[in-house]
């Protein structure tokens, strides 16, 4: 089974529905779309993370923290959907690469799987781009992730669906937590928005830079700081060094349909990775379908296990004088 995110306009369609008509069905459909959005960010971010040979360096820890928060966002979206009687379908949300963002968000943007480069970081910034200053673009004609979540929050507040804690994962105080009230839901949506894009007045409202600005520091090579004289934010702070080529595996971009005609050794590692990825997603699906947390624990273990075949692939050169290497395909 392969999910497809290219030419999907589900979020554009949902956002075109007038706010007074956004009912419980609209919320459920929007939350399934949110699961697709969060899942779509993980493979490209993970490829960038795994391509860093020493992932304990600062840039590695930055990307790791973003990955962990994106995983938590997907878990929160799954909890929201089960809390109102829906059924998260994680397998149906699986993207293919290269492709567009799910739902028609930023349709001009193509996402591919590749190692860490400044070009990839620029794509990541596009994914996380805020709706508001200091960097909001005024020419945007398609919904952003932040605008979509803002519409979800407004719909929850208006519809006020019954919230039940059945089949929810996580624990109170953790990054993924169950919902017992509407206040819990709206708090989670605001966490997702602030961790991704910041707040109108502050790139780090929770004491940690939002994802957009963390990627911005990597791209610009400088920390973002507030100029007290002008009250404006800018990338004018301390240097943020980008890894040198010898610190990275030069994973090439995965072509549509996966790597063509791989050698037996490469094919075996690709199959190993893809099977583990499929098993991880199946465990996630089962966790929210049954409410059994053991499946979530199994999924987390398999996710960690993906790093080994991924890095092994990144150490194998592509055929010809490309100077690039293989990498995981994230195909199921």
Structure description:
- It is a single chain.
- The chain is mostly helical.
- 48% of the residues lie in helices and 2% in strands.
- It is built from 10 helices and 2 strands; from the N terminus they run H-H-H-H-H-H-H-E-E-H-H-H.
- It has a two-stranded antiparallel ribbon.
- A hairpin with a 4-residue loop joins strand 1 and strand 2.
- The longest helix has 27 residues.
- The chain starts with 9 loop residues before the first helix and ends in an 18-residue tail after the last helix.
- The N terminus is likely disordered.
Q: Extract low-pLDDT stretches.
A: 1-7, 132-141
Strand runs, count = 2
| Helix coverage percent | 40-55%
- Percentage of residues in strands: under 5%
Biggest sheet descriptor: 2 strands, antiparallel
Structural class: mainly alpha
Query: What is the CA-based Rg, rounded?
Result: 20 Å
Question: What spatial order of strands do you see in the largest sheet?
Answer: 1-2
Gap from first CA to last CA: 6 Å
Spell out the key features of this protein:
two-stranded antiparallel sheet, mainly alpha, 10 helices, single chain, disordered N terminus, 332 residues
Please describe the topology of this protein:
Elements: H1 10-16, H2 24-50, H3 58-83, H4 118-128, H5 145-159, H6 182-197, H7 211-220, E1 225-227, E2 232-234, H8 264-290, H9 293-305, H10 307-314
Antiparallel strand pairs: 1-2
Helix pairs in contact: 2-3, 2-5, 3-6, 3-7, 4-7, 5-6, 8-9, 8-10
């Amino acid at each position: 089974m392969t999910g497809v995110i290219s030419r999907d306009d589900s979020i554009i369609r949902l956002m075109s529905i007038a706010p007074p008509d956004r009912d419980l069905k609209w919320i459920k459909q929007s939350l399934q779309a949110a699961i697709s959005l969060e899942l779509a960010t993980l493979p490209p971010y993970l490829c960038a993370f795994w391509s860093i040979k020493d992932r304990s360096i600062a840039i590695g820890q930055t990307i790791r923290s973003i990955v962990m928060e994106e995983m938590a966002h997907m878990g929160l979206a799954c909890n929201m959907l089960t809390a109102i009687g829906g059924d998260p379908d994680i397998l149906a949300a699986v993207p293919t690469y290269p492709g567009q963002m799910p739902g028609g968000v930023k349709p001009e943007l193509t996402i591919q799987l590749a190692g860490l480069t400044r070009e990839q970081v620029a794509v990541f910034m596009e994914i996380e781009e805020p709706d508001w200053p200091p960097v909001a673009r005024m020419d945007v004609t398609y919904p952003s992730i932040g605008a979509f979540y803002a519409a979800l929050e407004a719909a929850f507040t208006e519809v006020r669906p019954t919230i039940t804690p059945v089949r929810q994962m996580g624990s109170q105080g953790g990054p993924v937590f169950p919902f017992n009230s509407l206040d819990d839901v709206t708090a989670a949506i605001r966490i997702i928005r602030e961790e991704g894009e910041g707040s109108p007045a502050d790139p780090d409202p929770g004491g940690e830079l939002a994802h957009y600005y963390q990627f911005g520091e990597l791209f610009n090579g400088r920390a973002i700081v507030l100029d007290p004289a002008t009250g404006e934010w800018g990338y004018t702070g301390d240097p943020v060094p980008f890894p040198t080529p010898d610190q990275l595996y030069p994973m090439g971009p995965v072509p549509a349909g996966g790597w063509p005609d791989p050698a037996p050794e490469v094919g075996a590692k690709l199959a190993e990775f893809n099977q583990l990825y499929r098993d991880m997603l199946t465990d996630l699906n089962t966790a929210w379908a049954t409410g059994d947390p053991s499946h979530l624990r199994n999924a987390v273990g398999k996710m960690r296990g993906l790093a080994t075949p991924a890095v092994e692939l990144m150490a194998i050169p592509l055929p010809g004088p490309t100077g690039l290497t293989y990498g995981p395909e994230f195909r199921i």
